[in-house]
Structure prediction request, 739 residues.
Amino acid sequence: MNFIYVHLNRVIKEQDLDAIYIAGPGHGGPGLVANTYLEGTYSEYYPDISQDTDGMKKLFKQFSFPGGVPSHVAPETPGSIHEGGELGYALSHAFGAAFDNPDLLVACVIGDGEAETGPLATAWHSNKFLNPAIDGAVLPILHLNGYKIANPTILARISHDELEKLMVGYGYKPYFVEGSEPEAMHARMAETLDTVTAEIKAIQDNARNGGKVKRPQWPMIVLRTPKGWTGPDAIDGKKMEGYWRSHQVPLADVVNNPKRIKDLEQWLKSYKPDELFDDKGALISELAELAPAGKRRMGDNPHANGGLLRKSLKMPDFRQNAIDVPAPGAVEEESTRVMGRFLRDVMKLNPKTFRLFGPDETASNRLDAVYEVTRKTWMADILPEDEDGGQLAPDGRVMEILSEHTCQGWLEGYLLTGRHGFFSTYEAFAHVIDSMFNQHAKWLDVTQKDIPWRVPIASLNILLSSHVWRQDHNGFSHQDPGFIDHVVNKKADVVRVYLPPDANTLLSVTNHCLRSQHYVNVIVAGKQRQPQWLDIEAAVKHCTAGLGIWPWASNDQGGEPDVVMACCGDVPTLETLAAVSLLREHLPDVKVRVINIVNLMKLQSPSEHPHGLNDKDFDALFTCDKPIIFAFHGYPWLIHRLTYRRTNHKNLHVRGYVEEGTTTTPFDMTVLNRLDRFQLVGDVIDRVPKLGSSAAYVKQMLRDKLVEHKQYITKHGQDMPEVLNWKWNLPVTDYSEKT
Ligand SMILES: Cc1ncc(C[n+]2csc(CCOP(=O)(O)OP(=O)(O)O)c2C)c(N)n1
Ligand SMILES: [Mg+2]
Prediction:
């Protein structure tokens, strides 16, 4: 890591390059800490770690020490946008940083172990999306040190020829820098860096000076050096340098074993520190001057503290995309299609700082209005037939690759360098990036809390569409609403989850998320036609509150409700309203209060989440003692988790997805999971004490309906007309009641 850093320093200085360094191999972290210290940035960010003996002592002591810095290139390390603790994301982060940054060079060191991971393996293909005319450059440096923790690496144990062909097959022009003799290796690396930077410049000049935009063969470096290079040869007769034993801590037990201390001393003295540092402990000026100055230092490059460069998006008025909803349920619409028009307008106003990411699903998720203003980035071959609907273009701004990892990695890199973006994906497959979400959320958490010099970045916005309730053809494999369970495990300060019930609420939520900073916002919204409930003004008020009573659907005005019907998510909202209309028809004396929840975090106590509704308001809405029938989009337990401290939790009865998935009709999915309107009415009858046996006729009717439903779908393959064509038809007496 040191070797690469100082060689990059030389070319940065010589060619005045704007470069950042991404360190894939996590345990290379000390290399970056050391070099940012030697170039002076570290002491500027942490004045306590001064450029003298005292500062150096503190620098060493804080390493892997309680309250100090971790062994990876953590957020604490100046110049880092990539932690490296969880291997696999270096290259997609690097490309994300390079998009729309034409003057930036992103040097990306990839461990040969890291190169075995799925996310890294697919990220090589990012070069089919990098446009030399408008994007910066990525210089992958595959560090072939031959080993991981306890194994050889695959790429180091195939022939030179095979590895070269692999890299060529990925579309790169590999340069091999191989050896173990430092002097010769320095010469080779310097020469190679001169060659590859010249090649990158030639590629860019050609593309930017009217040359035909075609996919270049970008250079990359394969650096083959021994693992633990310049470390101890062998310890206790066991091979150390050039073998996996040198991973991470080559000399263990220095505290108790005096011989080890000697070994350590001998090893460290081999670097001749007396010649490198003056008698006060500062790097001698002859060496210090080799580093670039000011913002050209990789530790102080503003791209690696993206919040410094971030400008707010130019936002169109989302109200212009609102759909007209003259009365609740009066019109139907595909909610995400409406959102797509809004995203189109955002893209139009922000042609260089906003991109849309997705694994082949932008159109499937009904966001294709964006193609009115841009296309899909594509640097691979384009065929004549692509002109008719293919929407491919080298300068497109919609990024689609069938790798959720790569989409997420690109977006993270793009955000961390100060830009904005949006990721849409099928709900069930968001789990593919569970772990990446974890790492990003941790980064946001730590940078917000503990690192004041890190400036907030734009939020990471994820739309989960094609959700669990509407997988009529795909079936069980596509049904899993659990990503949000995973998300809410993370620190409340950095995660937000929204389930807007219709198009106008989705618009309002999207507008809010795109303006926010330093969160992961997850929005769950369906793409199928569905009734629309709120006009735009009502939607804005409802989303601003995050949850609230829908008076037009309730009949408890002026008194206490007998039951609270709560709903969260588009399909549960539909089933709840259908249940309410059944109740109002068959049991008109039951006083029902309908509450819809858009912002899931409102359910938590304010002590747990900053959005949490205070207990007094929660009790006023949900009552202290009335049954609550809660229809939820996801796994029911999540609602219990969020509300277990609330006064009326004992009366909370949640219906949601209980893992009954299959290929069936939309309504049958709700029936199988006992979230359907008939079940919800039955739940009310079972729980409202005053109903007792008087409701027995209604219960029987509900049971019969479910039998009819099964018979009907078995025969016709679709839902009963009374379900399919159901409409909210209770009068809304006063327009303002809609809010
Ligand atoms: C996804 C993931 N799996 C496993 C690990 C545990 N781990 C840490 S370092 C390492 C070996 C890395 O080898 P390589 O990428 O070649 O880096 P080197 O240390 O050789 O530079 C492993 C398996 C991890 N950090 N991340
Ligand atoms: Mg390795």
Q: What stands out?
A: The chain has 24 helices and 22 strands. Residues 111-113, 145, 147-148, 153, 227 surround magnesium ion (ligand 2) (CB under 6 Å). The first helix runs from residue 2 to 15.
